[in-house]
Design goal:
Elements lengths: L14 E5 H14 L3 E6 L6 H9 L3 E4 L2 H9 L7 E3 L6 H9 L4 E4 L2 H10 L4 E5 L23 H10 L6 E3 L3 H13 L6 E3 L15 H15 L7 E4 L3 H4 L3 E14 L1 H4 L8 E7 L9 H5 L5 E3 L8 E7 L8 E9 L6 E4 L20 E5 L29
Parallel strand pairs: 1-16, 2-3, 2-9, 3-4, 4-5, 5-6, 6-7, 8-9, 11-13
Antiparallel strand pairs: 1-10, 10-11, 10-15, 12-15, 13-14
Length: 399
């Protein structure tokens, strides 16, 4: 698939550009650096159908957190054994649905959930989720989910043995703690065969994060030490933003602006003599920028059409709704912008589409996939071309 040439002038709505070639490269990178770890993509991160279809065609499996997510993945032709129902607290109807669809792998972190699953789906294969206390996680679930690996996990393993659940495994981030539980499982006569090291991977280098290659090397070393190949343990992971963030760019338009005293933006009286600008764009925190609230991220915007170096001013970038909380960039340096100028935000595919709303009557942002001609994937991509959408806008002179 190639992009034809279009024009952006008539498009007043923000839109996502989805680089299919970049997604393919990310999967190749995963295979190169984590060859023994089977990825189960976290659907909650971005459930775009084309994204899911391309991942499925490359052999990626899926981590689903609800009945609807399972239905979505099954609808694109993925077999149920490639799905993990990764929600430690599930309604009974969802467990019954998983049973009816032969989705056997599911997680738990407490005795009540274990008993519930056993009564409704005794042939399921269980993964115990334990807490790892990752203080550097972008989003931490440790307060809500995960049993303590020292004080709670051993007793849960005993309960699993009593119930006849001999296929359970640890849902872990801490490989060292997982090995202790695997040894404990053997003592209980409950041999564990699958290790899930969870998520938290990123293809984007951010402050305080290890490069993916360095993280992969540490994981491989830990697995070699704690889970040597003769143990025959299957290792999986649940990457979400690793696959979803980088291939998606968000293109927004300045729909209005006002000139203000710079101190109104900076809060510094020393800037009273300078001017600043407030810009309003056609997306916001109730739409594609909801990740500002959920992930505490600061998006980085840039002018889509390059211009010569010019003076910059203290600026605020507001979202399109009437809510005063709808602020995207509170204080930043930007050149003077004008109505209809385009701002591009990189790495916007994670937790943007799936958590966006239609607050104030604004529509959810559309996605336009493309493959660059020089990527070499127009014929090599393994997805059905009938699934591809054409770009209704031209990026000539911009990208």
């Amino acid at each position: 698939m190639k992009c034809n040439q279009f024009t952006v002038q008539d498009s007043e709505e923000a839109f996502f550009l989805f680089d299919l070639g970049k997604l393919i490269l990310l999967h190749q990178r995963w295979i190169e650096h984590l060859p023994q770890i089977h990825p189960f993509y976290a659907v909650k991160c971005n459930d775009n159908k084309l994204l899911l279809s391309l991942l499925a065609s490359m052999g990626v499996n899926f981590d689903c957190a609800s009945k609807n997510e399972i239905e979505t993945v099954l609808s694109i032709g993925v077999s149920p054994e490639r799905i993990i129902f990764a929600n430690p607290c599930k309604p009974r109807s969802a467990i019954e649905y998983a049973n009816s669809q032969n989705v056997r792998y599911m997680t738990f972190d407490n005795e009540q959930e274990l008993q519930k699953i056993h009564s409704l789906y005794p042939k399921s294969e269980l993964l115990m989720r334990i807490s790892t206390f990752n203080y550097n996680a972008v989003i931490s679930f440790e307060k809500k989910f995960g049993c303590n690996p020292i004080t709670e996990a051993p007793e849960l393993l005993k309960k699993a043995v009593v119930l006849g659940c001999r296929e359970s495994s640890a849902y872990v981030n801490s490989i060292a703690n997982a090995r202790k539980l695997f040894d404990l499982g053997n003592q209980f006569g409950c041999p564990l065969k699958l290790l899930d090291i969870g998520g938290g991977f990123s293809a984007v280098l951010e402050n305080g994060t290890l490069p993916f290659e360095s993280l992969a090397m540490e994981i491989n070393q830990a697995l070699s030490y704690y889970f040597p190949s003769d143990m025959n343990v299957t290792v999986i992971a649940e990457p979400g933003r690793y696959y979803a963030a980088k291939p998606f760019q968000l293109c927004t338009r300045v729909i209005g602006y006002r000139k203000v005293i710079a101190s109104k933006i900076t809060g510094n009286a020393a800037d009273d003599g300078d001017i600043g600008f407030m810009y309003f764009i056609n997306d916001g925190i109730y739409g594609s920028f909801n990740c500002i609230l959920t992930e505490n991220t600061i998006p980085q915007g840039q002018l889509l059409k390059k211009r010569k170096a010019s003076k910059t001013y203290w600026s605020t970038v507001w979202g399109q709704t009437c809510d005063s909380l709808d602020i995207i960039l509170k204080k930043c340096q930007l050149p003077e912008l004008f109505e209809n100028e385009l701002l591009l935000f990189q790495n916007m595919g994670a937790y943007s589409l799936t958590v966006s709303t239609e607050f104030n009557g604004f529509s959810r942002t559309k996605v336009y996939p493309y493959i660059k001609e020089d990527d070499g994937y127009s014929s090599a991509a393994t997805f059905e071309q009938s699934q591809a959408m054409e770009l209704p806008l031209t990026m000539d002179g911009y990208l």
